[in-house]
Write a structure and sequence with these properties.
Two copies of one chain form a homodimer.
Chain A (H helix, E strand, L loop, with lengths): L3 H13 L5 H8 L3 H13 L3 E7 L5 E7 L1 H37 L1
Helix pairs in contact in A: 1-4, 2-3
Chain B binds a DNA duplex (30 and 30 nucleotides) through helix 3 and strand 2.
DNA sequence: TATTATCGTTCACCAATTGAACGCAGCATA
DNA sequence: TATGCTGCGTTCAATTGGTGAACGATAATA
């Protein structure tokens, strides 16, 4: 399934590196090739990216995954939501760490 | 599967509340009853806890899940490892937040 | 005794994920 | 030209992980 997390991560990777293979993307995000393929299809389906045929200078022949205007919008929105989420996680983590420190003392 | 995270969380709950039902444990850890049952079995298998028959004052008839000496040791070790892990996560999170802030600016 | 409530256990079912296998395209070498 | 190699996207059978309804057992209660 395509969670917010992977939607964000994939859009981010593609934005800064549109010519990237699905295999490479899988490595970077530490997920399987199948999942990458599935997520990309979903993103195309939603109109957030489009895949253009593309011949690399080397022996590659693949796609260029470009963010559509809608994709760019979505990515901004996701980034903001992500920041908020991470701030909450940060706060929770500090409490957890404090609790662990207390526990280690015992 | 029994991850470090759940090994830690379960040992912690059991230590401070040995008479607890699997259902209650499932609620607290927000996992299914089946998973709790599976994890408890695994912990018993590893000799980290033992289940003693136990008659509650109320109408309950269940087990008392007691940490073995080995279980207590393991829990201390897990706690320390967990603290270390959380400190790393904390650091990573701060970087991520900083990065997100930069990104939001753009 | 019959009923109710809670216990641990089980397991068929579902959803998510994996990665080997495939066909295709481009390049390099014989 | 033909052959082999590499990397591409795509597919899908197989595995894994998680779920919770259902079950039998036990103890309190009516």
């Amino acid at each position: 399934m395509l969670t917010d997390e992977y939607r964000y991560k994939i859009l981010k990777e593609l934005q800064q590196d549109p010519d990237i293979s699905q295999r490479e993307l899988a490595k970077r995000l530490d997920i399987s090739l199948g999942k990458v393929n599935f997520c990309l299809k979903a993103l195309i389906e939603k109109g957030l990216i489009k895949a253009e045929n593309f011949k690399n200078s080397t022996n590659k022949m693949g796609y260029l995954y470009l963010l559509t205007p809608k994709g760019i919008e979505e990515k901004v929105s996701l980034t903001q939501r992500f920041l908020q989420r991470k701030l909450k996680e940060h706060e929770a983590l500090e409490k957890e760490i404090e609790q662990l420190r207390q526990e280690v003392k015992t």
